[in-house]
Write a structure and sequence with these properties.
The protein is mainly α. It has helices spanning about 1-35, 40-55, 65-100, 105-115, 120-135, 140-155, 155-160. The chain has seven helices and no strands. It is found in: Cell inner membrane; Cell membrane.
Length: about 170
């Protein structure tokens, strides 16, 4: 009977790790969906779930640094996903400018604003880190991190301007 209870407890722990990773991603993705970003709830939920799963696989490894290597690989790989988000955002902005017929003027304005998609790319990377924390069983870190990420994402650009940042810089 104790073997069955131990197995159920282990399974419940895995379910909680995966749910925590997915929920951290869903929280961040919800905000990106509200802001009509290129990536939203499903994308961020999948990043959180996937990274939690990968981290959980190696969380009880026989070698102490297995989980560390997995997390390093995940965060490096997700950086490439973020680069793709930036590229897609920029290409979409260029296509929209061409469709409106003012491609040259809007292209100059787009260059003045800088690259598009940086916040979403950073949010994808943070979501991967939150998923890793959840997958390794650090629920507090994942929950607090998701809350802080959401807080940072809802900060409006007007607050940044009040802090001295000019529009388009």
């Amino acid at each position: 009977m104790s073997d069955v209870l131990a197995a159920l407890t282990a399974d419940l722990d895995i379910v909680l790790r995966l749910l925590c990773g997915a929920l951290a991603g869903i929280v961040v993705g919800w905000e990106r969906t509200v802001k009509q970003s290129y990536a939203g709830i499903r994308t961020f939920g999948l990043v959180g779930l996937g990274t939690a799963t990968a981290a959980a696989i190696f969380s009880a490894g026989t070698e102490g640094d297995e989980a560390s290597r997995v997390v390093q690989g995940i965060l490096t790989g997700v950086g490439f996903l973020g680069a793709g988000v930036i590229t897609i955002a920029r290409k979409t902005a260029e296509i929209k400018a061409e469709e409106r017929g003012g491609a040259q003027k809007e292209d100059r304005e787009m260059h003045a604003r800088g690259p598009s998609g940086l916040t979403t790319a950073a949010a994808v990377w943070v979501t991967a880190a939150l998923g890793c924390a959840a997958g390794l069983g650090d629920y507090h870190l994942a929950i607090i991190g998701a809350g802080l990420a959401l807080l940072l994402l809802v900060v409006d650009h007007s607050i940044e301007r009040l802090a001295g940042r000019r529009r388009g810089t």
